[in-house]
Every structure is written in C-alpha cells, then in structure tokens.
Amino acid sequence: MMQSKLASLTLKGFLAFGLFLGVLLSSFAASAQQASPSLPLLFDARERLARPDLSSLVRLRFLTSVDFPPFNFTDQNGKLSGFNVDLAREICSELEISDKCQIQALPFADLRDALAASQGDAVIAGFAVTPELRRQFVFSRPYLMLPARFVRNLAVPLDGKTAAALSKHPVGVVRGTVHEAMLAAFFPAIKAEPFDTKDALLAALKDRKVDAAFADALQLSFWVSSPASAKCCALFDGPYLSEQFLGEGMTIMLRQKDSVLTSAIDHALATLSRNGRLQEIYLRYFPYGLY
User: Which residues lie in coiled coils (predicted)?
Assistant: First the structure.
C-alpha cells in the first residue's frame, strides 16, 4: 500500500500551482526587507559524521515526484524544481559526486516500487516514515520538521501572545486530522470547532466564524501570505512539534543494503546543516518561515 506524503494534507488541491509560484516570487522580494526566519538545527553542531568512501559508486539516482510543491514540482519552464531537488543537488556537491548524480521524477505512487526494484538509489519526496516502510527500507536522519501552528484573525483582540490567550476563543481544525488530535492533547482548554475541509476552515477564519485555526504550518504560511487571505490573518505562537502526531520529519529513503550510501547522505546533511547551505535552501522556498 502506498504511504502518504509527510504532513496530514499536501498543498495539492490547497493552492493552485500558479498561485503558489506567485506567492513564492513575491515572498522573495518581501523577505529581503525582513529578518531571516531561522531553520531549527536537527544536527548537533559538534557532531562529526564520518564520510564514507564513495569512489566505487557508479552513480547516485535520486527519485522524486512533481506533485508536492514547494518540495518537488515542475516550474513554469518545465524544469524539475523544489526544496528537495535543490537539496539532492547540494548533497551530491558536498559528496563531490555531482558528475554521477541524477534526479528523476516519477508518479508518487510508483516511487516505493521503483526503489525496491533498484530503478533508483534514494527517494526524496516526502514519504512518511512508518514501521511498515522500515521493514523494507532505511531512512536518512531528518533534515526538516513540518510543525503545527496557530493562525489568528487579526481583527479579533487577544489577551496575550501565547496559545493560552485562545482558551476562550473558538479555534478551528479539520475534522479527523492529526492536528485535531494534537490540539486536543496539547491544549485541552481550547474549544475546538471542527470543519470537514481545509478550505472550509480557512473561509470560516477569514469570515470570523472562528477566531483562530490550528493546522499544518506549511499550508498556513503560504495562505497568510497569499491574496486568498486578504491579509486577514497571521501565524500565532508556536511552532509545535510532535513525533507522535507529526512523524519523524523529512527524510531520504534508501534500500536496506545501501548502508554506506545512507551514511554518506547523513554526513552530507550534517555538513549542510552546519555550514548554512541547508538554511539557504530553506529560505529560498520558505522566505516567511515555518517556525
């Protein structure tokens, strides 16, 4: 059975692709005028992971998809682009194997079988790490966590700057999602108002039918910066991370037999985190930040 992409809902169906690109381009200009949002470091700065010998490696074939913007998508010129695509290229550069590096896009549903059949060497496409997948594959160390966030309607006065200020206000969530469960577990004093879809939730927030919402920071970050929000709202408090509810984070999936390659990728990720190049890629696609 195909595993879902990381996060309870992807951007597919949430933002039209053209709108996504417009928001992204306008964000680049705006981000130059504001403080850079920091990417939390997932590697200890003192940690030094060994760099395995890859001299015998013939090629490194990354597999991804094109339906998970801003992580992997096809741009207006038909070029494979995105956070994961740029990260794969940086990994190859750091390992000094750029001339052996290939990146191929397949339908998301085909990625797992393609990796198992050795049609590629590593999948970088937002697979959620599950016990079932761990029985067949190995995963790199996480390189990005997707947090949950509150978003508030700016017209609603709040008595405070933390989530405690929402205890007397209706807060919307999408029914049946991990974010609904996480809100109940983390903030039992908050009155949750469930909605059937993310679109219905955000419409209610914009129209002040709820005062705030709790959802995936990735989607909320782009929505508050897009024309769709009409500048009604802003991210509030957080971020909130939970492996129990949100998983282990963004990782790279490899075959179990490729332990040397897995160690090499972990080495590259740690180095990119330490020298700031991972932060540069993050700001390229998330200039307003997720955190």
Answer: none
